[in-house]
Design a protein that fits this description.
The protein has eight helices and twelve strands. By secondary structure, it is of the alpha+beta class.
């Protein structure tokens, strides 16, 4: 009887010790999981948290109506109007005056960009009716309108025309750690960086907000790369706040995303080791109980 009692006490102590080991291993697994999550979670996901501290004078220095600069590859819509449309019909691509004085389209396939728009060539030029070669590359819309007006009036028409010029394929590319990477288009020739990111579904939780890169190609073919901080209020006064067509916005991955290729297997390995250890201890406990 005394031997059985001693064996029972021994088993109880052993089971207590083994239970403590299991609890330690489980606690270790929890702590490791929390550490991995905490280490790789972004410090903050807010944008320009202190924007309200910018003064009215600082914000007044920014021109919210920045004009786009025409680039090779742009599709451009140009329409010239006057009180007598007949006098300017020759300048409007795809349109002319009918004998009854009405405006008519010269091609039934009016959805074809080649019929409706001008494509700026590699030298920044288009071939414009009567005028011939017209240079647009590197110019702002107001400059193009002014040059076109001077070329037409008063040489070809007696009345100063009204001219509408638009870029029809204004777009930027958003890639990296956003929810819907791709090409973002604008119907009004204007996008700021937050609009572009919003149209790309916003940054995901792994996107690095302090080092967003903007790659910009200039008319002369040179490229520039700017790094902007979406936490910094000064982005609102930055020359890169308003985007140019064909800009590339690259959202860099944070540490969690960049190192995810080895972090996840590592975490799985650690977890598997702990689970394996716990399973071994449980098996030992069952063996002791059944002894």
């Amino acid at each position: 009887m005394q031997v059985n009692l001693q064996e029972q006490l021994f088993k109880t102590k052993l089971l207590t010790l083994l239970s403590l080991q299991i609890m330690k291993r489980i606690l270790s697994a929890v702590l490791i999981s929390l550490a991995l999550t905490a280490c790789h979670a972004p410090k903050t996901v807010t944008y320009i948290p202190d924007a309200e501290t910018l003064t009215a004078e600082q914000l007044a220095t920014v021109n919210p109506l920045t004009e786009p600069v025409f680039m090779p590859g742009d599709l451009v819509y140009i329409e010239i109007t006057a009180s007598s449309y007949e006098s300017v019909a020759m300048f409007n691509k795809g349109k002319s005056m009918s004998q009854d004085g009405n405006i008519q389209n010269n091609n039934t396939n009016n959805n074809d960009p080649a019929i409706r728009y001008y494509l700026i060539d590699a030298n920044g030029n288009i071939d414009f009716p009567l005028i011939g070669t017209l240079h647009l590359g590197g110019l702002k819309k107001s400059e193009v309108i002014n040059n076109l007006s001077e070329a037409i009036y008063p040489k070809y028409i007696k009345e100063k025309p009204t001219i509408d010029v638009r870029i029809m394929n204004f777009s930027v590319t958003v890639v990296g750690q956003v929810k819907s990477p791709g090409i973002v288009k604008s119907d009004n020739e204007r996008l700021n960086i937050f609009e572009a990111i919003a149209k790309a579904g916003d940054l995901d939780i792994r996107g690095e907000r302090e080092t967003v890169k903007i790659v910009r190609t200039n008319f002369d073919g040179t490229r520039e790369v700017a790094v902007v901080d979406l936490h910094d209020k000064n982005i609102l006064t930055s020359p890169y706040y308003t985007l140019q067509q064909n800009d590339i916005i690259y959202v860099t991955p944070n540490r969690s995303a960049a190192q995810g290729a080895w972090q996840i297997p590592n975490a799985i390995g650690v977890t598997s080791t702990i689970v394996g250890g716990v399973s071994g201890i449980v098996a030992l406990i069952l063996t002791i109980v059944n002894m």
